[in-house]
Amino acid sequence: MKSSMNILRRGLLMGSIALMGLSLAPMVASADELAEIKERGVLRIAMSGQYPPFNFVNEQNQVVGFDPAIGTEIAKRMGLEVEIITTAWDGIIAGLLASKYDAVVGSMSITAERDKVIDFVGPYYNTRRAIFTKAGSKITDVAQLADAKVGVTLGETHEQWARDQGYDINTYKGLPELLLELDNGRVDAIVNDSIPVMLAMKAGQYDLAVVIDPAAEPIGAGIAIREGNPDLAAAMQKALDDMMDDGTYLAIATEWVGGDIR
Fold first, then answer.
1. Is residue 94 included in any domain, yes or no?
2. How many alpha carbons fall within 13 Å on the CB side of residue 241?
3. Which residue segment(s) compose the domain that 22 sits in?
4. Residue 184 has pLDDT above 80, yes or no
5. pLDDT by residue (tens digit) across 49-73?
6. In terms of domains, do 143 and 231 share one?
7. Complete DSSP assignment for 151-191
């Protein structure tokens, strides 16, 4: 998700905020927001719920995965309960700016463009952009995507990257839809962070092949919060650092993604 988001992406983001009848100035958080959250006693965190194994809805209709486990542990160490809110990924930053939740713990890539309107805690894990096709596909090189139908998640940086390449794309709500559309042959390839798709392949859920992308670089995923929140940022960062130091982070990562992904 690390591909630099250009002026068009920023325009789309600002446009979505404007459509909500909002401006950036009133939404800048005050330095005492941490005190307000502590008085409430609940840290509200958002994610798509469409990104297994990082965040997804299980058979008991609970939002589970690496992200909610990390968010819940951070809240616990801050002396707070946690409320998990699921929302569409393409509007998740606008929702944060509108104070619908306190943070996004949803595998959001840290990019310079996003950092202009929000702040980040972390990164709390690292991955990289990857391209997948069905096993046996004739597509074996990135250059062949120019003549292919490419699936991406709406609002992810991978979507903007694919648009920047001039690819013919279909957009979807999340990874489960991406994988299903690829498996059914409605797209020829998908672009996504590498870890969740590799885990699905390892579990035997899908028979896929990786198209090597030499230009892909490591991506840091961060926890998004509103700007002007130094107290909240410091408290969340300390909780995250302590988790990494005492083995709790590794235990969570091992449970959900099979090992350390720092």
1. yes
2. 7
3. 7-126+219-257
4. yes
5. 999 999 999 999 999 999 999 999 9
6. no
7. EEETTSHHHHHHHHTT-EEEEESSHHHHHHHHHTTSSSEEE
